[in-house]
Specification:
The complex is a heterodimer of chains A (473) and B (205).
Chain A lengths: L4 E5 L9 E3 L3 H7 L4 E7 L5 E3 L9 E4 L2 E2 L6 E3 L2 E3 L9 E7 L8 H12 L4 E4 L6 E4 L2 E5 L10 E5 L2 E5 L8 E4 L2 H13 L5 E5 L6 E5 L10 H10 L8 E4 L5 H12 L7 E6 L6 H11 L7 E5 L1 E6 L2 E6 H10 L8 E4 L3 E3 L4 H9 L5 E4 L4 E6 L8 H18 L10 E2 L1 H11 L6 E10 L2 E9 L5 E7 L6
Parallel strand pairs in A: 1-10, 1-18, 18-19, 19-20, 23-30
Antiparallel strand pairs in A: 2-10, 3-9, 4-8, 5-6, 5-9, 7-8, 11-12, 12-16, 13-14, 13-17, 14-15, 21-22, 21-24, 25-26, 26-30, 27-28, 28-29
Chain B lengths: L19 H12 L2 E13 L26 E14 L22 E6 L9 E7 L14 E17 L4 E9 L4 H7 L7 E2 L11
Parallel strand pairs in B: 2-7
Antiparallel strand pairs in B: 1-2, 1-4, 2-3, 3-6, 4-5, 5-6
The chains are: A alpha+beta (473), B mainly beta (205).
Chain lengths: 473, 205
């Protein structure tokens, strides 16, 4: 048992406010919109296209149905330029790529995680609204939130509904039947994975219409998105840390505080980036005192950005992401000497500045340039709580939970349970830095109480990173 | 001949469905194995620049070389079905010298291959993103890898031969080769051979 991270960010497809444990890269791409498809009809003299999103990689192209036939396609932002397609008639260009939503992009963070740790993370999408259409007592809604579902068109002639248009290659699906069973047929096709549609309100009789759904958005990780997410989410029991891929605001801190205050929820250690550093540190700290009046012992704020390479593409991500991925790589057992995937970061701080920030509850990174080592001083946002302490609280909780979950709903005799006590004690013995004093398991009035007491080194944790040199290409 | 089951699966009845379900089922079947580029070393041919007579056998230069890809031997490429399982592996407590039981338990990455792949020690696989949906790879004539995800070298191979189904279960390590240089070679891999006979396993008995 070590740290286990939940990534929270933005995506263009997939379920929102639901923690997903992916089992393959293909599944991740498929679920969260990594195979976004666009079709363009262009004239024979066309040499550029404006894509719907900035592509993360690719795009894979096909010209009039033939793969890879565009001449020297290059992407800058969301503009794709290529050699004139030629020919005597207009051409059809099909593109497929994963959209990149910037530093908050969940898909890229997950790919980064897989590449670094060789394991699959928990991922959760935040934000977005469902595309929908209402007509004569019927309400149709897209399966997942996202702007791409605004392309889904419905055509009804009074007896059957034809669904089409989501992707260039998607076959039109016809749903026929009495008004009373159309909902069931839509459900069945959706469960088979054919039709990304819900019928949320069914009317009494079908009327004729021909529409595309509207109102779908990808979301922006606003405070209200995050609040909605934490009010509904059920984090996996064995997860310990939650990486929020969005700069902290007072609204988000308040949401986390309310989550942690809820008595039946397991404590998780939240880590989030803080941006917008301007020297001197004193004015930055003063500025953030008004922005973030709430301070939590289960929240770590990491300042700045880090340049790194994900899937061999140079990019800038939050320093918080790189730091948390370093904790999870190599099993997360060694907490003080880690390899972070990055070669530079900003802001570059002096030791005195780091001390100031640390005392105010911000984690930042200092670098000893001579030997490519960096030091990150783990604190929580309350500054007087150690990072190590809060992180271990989440870890101990996750271990006890994963052992005791099996007893929920079963009969367990009243009184002490030494065998369970020893199991928990054994599992806790693998937690680095923690020396367990005693574990007690008591069942009283059909409720199991687990008490763990232990010792931790009483200091703020110094974590040393080795910084990777940028590969020369 | 009567159908083997009520859904005429063996007769391919589901393919004739005019609805999208038939296509969907077919794509699902094609997608369930993950696909990876298998880089096979041919031990008969040494790399002229990276294989030294004085270090026969086990010298890996981990350098970019279009001939040997850092292995010291001539290499060939094949797109093969496989199942890459990523996980933490078993680890001892920090600071202890503790070995874990099991041949594959110490590997954080394990890969399963069908019998027809016949993996060998120190060959490696490249997992990539493709210019086609994964479900179309088994039927594609010219799939093209767009971007490398990771490169793993096979370090332990267990074979499992049973009557109808047989497979290889391999423990892998991350192959520390410069991905940027490997990726620069990707455009020249676009006519890669696809091993699509994985489902036609014959019984030896």
């Amino acid at each position: 048992m070590a740290t286990k991270l939940v990534l929270v960010g933005l995506a263009t497809d997939g379920p929102k406010n639901t923690v997903v444990k992916v089992e393959s890269l293909n599944q991740l791409n498929k679920l969260f919109g990594g195979f976004y498809k666009e079709r363009f009809n262009v004239s024979q003299t066309a040499t550029s296209l404006t894509l719907g999103y900035n592509p993360w990689n690719g795009p894979a192209n096909s010209l009039n149905g033939k793969a890879n036939k565009l001449y020297k396609p290059t992407v800058s932002g969301n503009i794709l330029t290529f050699g004139s397609v030629g020919g005597s008639a207009s051409a059809v260009i099909d593109l497929e790529y994963p959209p990149y939503l910037g530093q908050q992009d969940l898909l890229v963070a997950a790919k980064h995680y897989i590449e670094q740790t060789n394991s699959f993370p928990y991922v959760m999408r935040v934000g977005g609204t469902y595309a929908s259409y209402e007509v004569a007592g019927w309400t149709f809604q897209a399966m997942y939130p996202g702007a791409k579902y605004n392309k889904l068109s419905l055509t009804c002639n009074g007896t059957s509904i034809v669904v089409s248009g989501l992707e260039p290659y998607l076959e039109a699906t016809t749903i026929t039947g009495d008004a009373s069973i159309i909902g069931k047929r839509i459900d069945r096709l959706r469960e088979l994975g054919v039709l990304p549609l819900y019928l949320t309100v069914a009317g009494s009789a079908l009327t004729s219409f021909a529409v595309t759904l509207s109102g779908g958005t990808d979301g922006s990780f606003s405070d209200s998105d995050f609040t909605e997410c934490l009010e509904t989410v059920d984090f996996p029991g064995d997860s310990t840390h939650v990486l929020v891929l969005s700069p902290m605001t007072s609204g988000k801190v308040q949401t986390i505080s309310e989550y942690l205050d809820y008595p039946t929820r397991a404590p998780k250690f939240f880590v989030a980036p803080v941006t917008g550093f301007t020297a001197p540190t004193s004015s930055f700290i003063t500025q953030y005192r008004t922005i973030l009046p709430w301070r939590l012992n289960m929240l770590g704020l990491v300042l700045g950005d880090m340049n790194c390479s994900i899937n061999n593409r140079d990019t800038t991500r939050y320093a918080a992401e790189n730091v948390m991925l370093a904790f999870d790589s190599k099993g997360g057992y060694n907490l003080t000497n880690l390899k972070v995937d990055g070669w530079s970061y900003s802001p570059l701080l002096e030791k005195e500045e780091l001390d100031d920030l640390k005392a105010a509850g911000f984690n930042a990174i200092t670098r000893y340039i001579q030997n490519d080592l960096a030091v990150y001083q783990g604190t929580t946002s309350t500054a007087d709580w150690s990072y190590l302490f809060s992180s271990k609280v989440a870890e101990v909780h996750a271990i006890c939970y994963s052992i005791c979950i099996g007893y929920i709903g079963t009969y367990v005799a009243e009184g002490a349970h030494p065998e369970l006590r020893e199991r928990i004690r054994l599992a806790l013995s693998a937690v680095s830095y923690l020396s367990v004093d005693y574990v007690d398991v008591q069942v009283t009035n059909s409720t199991m109480f687990v008490e763990v007491a232990g010792y931790l080194p009483d200091e703020i944790l110094n974590i040393r990173f080795s910084i990777k040199n940028k590969p020369s290409i | 001949m009567p159908p083997s089951n009520p859904w005429s699966l063996a007769a391919g009845g589901w393919k004739a469905n005019s609805q999208a379900i038939g296509t969907h089922v077919e794509k699902f079947i094609g997608e369930i194995p993950q696909w990876a580029i298998y880089v096979r070393r041919d031990l008969r041919f040494d790399c002229p620049t990276h294989k030294l007579p004085s270090t026969e056998g086990t010298t890996f230069f981990r350098e970019h070389c279009p001939f040997c890809w850092g292995t010291g031997f001539k290499t060939s490429f094949q797109l093969v079905p496989c199942k890459v399982s990523l996980g933490k592996g078993a680890l001892g407590r920090e600071g202890t010298v503790m070995d874990v039981p099991g041949l594959l338990a110490r590997f954080s990455v394990t890969v399963d291959f069908p019998r027809t792949v016949y993996p060998k020690f120190d060959d490696f696989i490249i997992t990539a993103e493709w210019n086609l949906p994964v479900s179309e790879l088994p039927k594609a004539t010219k799939p093209k890898p767009l971007r490398i995800n990771n490169i793993y070298m096979l370090k332990q191979i267990n074979d499992h031969f049973e009557r109808e189904i047989s497979w290889f279960n391999c423990g892998c390590e991350v192959y520390e080769i410069d991905k940027a240089k490997v990726e620069a070679e990707l455009p020249y891999l676009q006519d890669i051979e696809v091993l699509n006979t994985a489902w036609q396993q014959n019984s030896y008995w």
